C-alpha cells in the first residue's frame, strides 16, 4: 500500500482517536478530517497555530511516520523520526559501522553515476543539450576525487533553467526546489530508519553538524525527480511562487512513478528498495545499490 503525505497548513488541533489522526478546528473543535495512522508516511505541519497531542506523536513514531515542521518561510525546518524502525537494529548498525572506506567510495561512485544519468534524462526530456553529462558520468572514479558530480551539476543547472544559479537561499525556483528536496530528504531518512540504518553516518557526506549525512547521500539520484516535477509545474502554471498549489504539486513526489530494479514503482516504495539494498551492500550480500532510472 502506498503511504500518504499529509499537509496541515491552517490553525488546527491534532489528536489521536481510534488509531486515527483527527484534525480539528482549534476553537470549536469541529472535525475537519481523519486519516488512519497506518496510512501515513509523512505529516507536514506548516502553521504556528497547530497543536498536536503527545499521544498522537507517540503513535506516529510507533508507525515510523516522519513529522516535519515548517518555518516562517513555509520551508521544512525540523524532522522527527523514531529512534529505530527495524527489529534487527543493533545487528544492522554493526554492519554499517564496519563498512570499509573502499566500499563507501565504490557506493558513492555508483550514487554519482546514477545522479548524473538521471540529470541527463531530465535535460533530454526537455530537449536540452545533454551530451557533456554522459562524458562526466563515464569518467567518475571511486570516491569521485575529480568531483565529476560538481562539474555535472554546474552544466546541468546552467542548461535546465535560463539565467539560473542553484543556491540554497537564491531566487526562484530555488524556493520550489528547496521545498521538494526537504520533502525528499524526509522520505529517504524515514526509509533509512525503517531499514535499520543510522541516517547520521554517511558514505560521502561527513559534516559534523549534519544529522542526516546518509540521507543526503542516498537522495542524490532522486533529486532529478524533484527537478522534473518543479520544471513541469513552472512550465504549466507559469508561476514559481511557493504557493499552496505549488506545495500540493510538489508533495506528489512520493507517488511519482519511477523505474527501479526492472519494475515501475511509486518513488516512496522505490526509496525503501534503495535503502534495503544499501544495507545488503554493507552486509556483503550485494555489490550495487538499487537506484531509480529517470526516463
Keywords:
single chain; 295 residues; alpha/beta; 4-stranded mixed β-sheet; 10 helices; 10 strands; 44% helix
Break the fold down into its secondary structure elements and pairings:
Blueprint: E1 4-8, E2 12-17, E3 20-24, E4 31-36, E5 40-45, E6 50-52, H1 54-62, E7 66-70, E8 76-80, H2 89-97, H3 101-125, H4 131-138, H5 148-160, H6 174-194, H7 213-218, H8 223-237, H9 244-250, E9 257-260, E10 263-266, H10 267-282
Parallel strand pairs: 1-5, 2-6, 5-7
Antiparallel strand pairs: 2-3, 3-4, 7-8, 9-10
Helix pairs in contact: 3-4, 3-5, 3-8, 4-5, 6-8, 6-10
C-alpha Rg, in Å?
19 Å
Taking all residues together, what is the mean pLDDT?
94
Q: Give the beta-strand count.
A: 10
Identify the overall geometry: globular
* Largest sheet report: 4 strands, mixed
- Which regions have little confidence, pLDDT < 50, spanning 5+ residues? none
Strand order of the largest sheet: 1-5-7-8
Cα(first) to Cα(last) distance is: 24 Å
Percent of residues in helices comes to 40-55%
SS summary, helix count: 10
Provide the succession of SSEs: EEEEEEHEEHHHHHHHHEEH
Q: Helix/strand/pairing class, anyone?
A: alpha/beta
Strand content: 15-25%
Amino acid at each position: 500500500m502506498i503511504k500518504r503525505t499529509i499537509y496541515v497548513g491552517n490553525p488546527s488541533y491534532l489528536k489521536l482517536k481510534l488509531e486515527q489522526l483527527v484534525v480539528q478546528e482549534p476553537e470549536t473543535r469541529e472535525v475537519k478530517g481523519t486519516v488512519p495512522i497506518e496510512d501515513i508516511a509523512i505529516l507536514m505541519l506548516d502553521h504556528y497555530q497547530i497543536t498536536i497531542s503527545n499521544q498522537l506523536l507517540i503513535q506516529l513514531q510507533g508507525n515510523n511516520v516522519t513529522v516535519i515542521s515548517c518555518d516562517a518561510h513555509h520551508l521544512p525546518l525540523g524532522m522527527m523520526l523514531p529512534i529505530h524502525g527495524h527489529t534487527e537494529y543493533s545487528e544492522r548498525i554493526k554492519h554499517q559501522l564496519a563498512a570499509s572506506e573502499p566500499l563507501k567510495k565504490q557506493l558513492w561512485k555508483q550514487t554519482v553515476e546514477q545522479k548524473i544519468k538521471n540529470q541527463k534524462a531530465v535535460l533530454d526530456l526537455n530537449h536540452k543539450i545533454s551530451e557533456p553529462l554522459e562524458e562526466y558520468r563515464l569518467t567518475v572514479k571511486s570516491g569521485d576525487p575529480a568531483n565529476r558530480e560538481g562539474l555535472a551539476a554546474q552544466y546541468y543547472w546552467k542548461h535546465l533553467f535560463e539565467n539560473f544559479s542553484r543556491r540554497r537561499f537564491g531566487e526562484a525556483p530555488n524556493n520550489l526546489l528547496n521545498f521538494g528536496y526537504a520533502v525528499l530528504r524526509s522520505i529517504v531518512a524515514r526509509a533509512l530508519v525503517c531499514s535499520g540504518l543510522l541516517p547520521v553516518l554517511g558514505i560521502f557526506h561527513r559534516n559534523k553538524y549534519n544529522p542526516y549525512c546518509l540521507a543526503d547521500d542516498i537522495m542524490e539520484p532522486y533529486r532529478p525527480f524533484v527537478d522534473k516535477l518543479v520544471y513541469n509545474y513552472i512550465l504549466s502554471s507559469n508561476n514559481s511562487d511557493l504557493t499552496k498549489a505549488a506545495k500540493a504539486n510538489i508533495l506528489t513526489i512520493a507517488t511519482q512513478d519511477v523505474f527501479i530494479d526492472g519494475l515501475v514503482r511509486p518513488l516512496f516504495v522505490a526509496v525503501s528498495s534503495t535503502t534495503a539494498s544499501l544495507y545488503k551492500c554493507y552486509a556483503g550480500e550485494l555489490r550495487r545499490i538499487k537506484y531509480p532510472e529517470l526516463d
